[in-house]
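The protein record filed below.
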Amino acid sequence: MHTVSDGNGGVDDVDVTGSGRYVRIYGTARGTGWGYSLYEFGVYS
């Protein structure tokens, strides 16, 4: 599991170990007045 609580809206590369079937993105605070924006997300092995 990996948590980012101080993101700046830029690119975040996260290296993790282990295996799993699902990836969850859980937003805890709005980045804008309109809500969340996720432009691209990828998982690579």
Summary: The chain has a mean pLDDT of 83.
